[in-house]
C-alpha cells in the first residue's frame, strides 16, 4: 500500500488583504468640459454594477478623467463605433 501525500492548494483570497464586498465604479464624478481634441485615448467600461463609464486619457498631461456619457459628442462617437 502506497502512502498518500497531502495536497495543498494556494489560497485564492490572501489573508493579508480584506475582501471588499462592495465594488466601486471607476467614475464617481464626470467631466463635461473636455474637448474631443484634447483626448489621446478613450476607454469604455461596462459592468453589471455600474452605468456606462467612459475614461479619457488627456493629451496634455496624460491625466485620466471620467467623461459624462450623456455628452452629445460621446453619444455620436458610441453610435458610430457600434455601427461599424
If you had to describe this structure to a student in words, what would you say it looks like?
With 84 residues, the protein is of the alpha+beta class. It has a domain at 36-82: OB fold (Dihydrolipoamide Acetyltransferase, E2P). 13% of the residues lie in helices and 26% in strands. A three-stranded antiparallel β-sheet has the order 1-2-3, with no helix packed on it. The N and C termini lie far apart (65 Å). The model has no long low-confidence stretch (mean pLDDT 78).
Unreliable residue stretches: none
Secondary structural class: alpha+beta
* CATH class category name of the domain at 36-82: Mainly Beta
Distance between the termini: 65 Å
GO biological process, one term: defense response
Domain Chemokine interleukin-8-like: 22-81
Protein name: Stromal cell-derived factor 1
GO molecular function, one term: chemokine activity
What order do the helices and strands come in, and which of them pair?
Blueprint: E1 39-47, E2 50-58, E3 64-67, H1 72-82
Antiparallel strand pairs: 1-2, 2-3
Summarize the structure.
The chain is 13% helix and 26% strand.
Keywords:
26% strand; alpha+beta; Stromal cell-derived factor 1; 3 strands; chemokine activity; three-stranded antiparallel sheet; 1 helix; single chain
Amino acid at each position: 500500500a502506497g502512502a498518500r501525500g497531502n495536497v495543498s492548494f494556494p489560497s485564492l483570497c490572501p489573508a493579508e488583504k480584506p475582501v471588499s464586498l462592495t465594488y466601486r465604479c471607476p467614475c464617481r464624478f464626470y467631466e463635461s468640459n473636455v474637448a474631443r481634441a484634447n483626448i489621446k485615448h478613450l476607454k469604455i467600461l461596462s459592468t453589471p454594477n455600474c452605468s456606462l463609464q467612459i475614461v479619457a486619457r488627456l493629451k496634455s498631461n496624460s491625466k485620466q478623467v471620467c467623461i459624462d456619457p450623456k455628452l452629445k459628442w460621446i453619444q455620436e462617437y458610441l453610435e458610430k463605433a457600434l455601427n461599424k
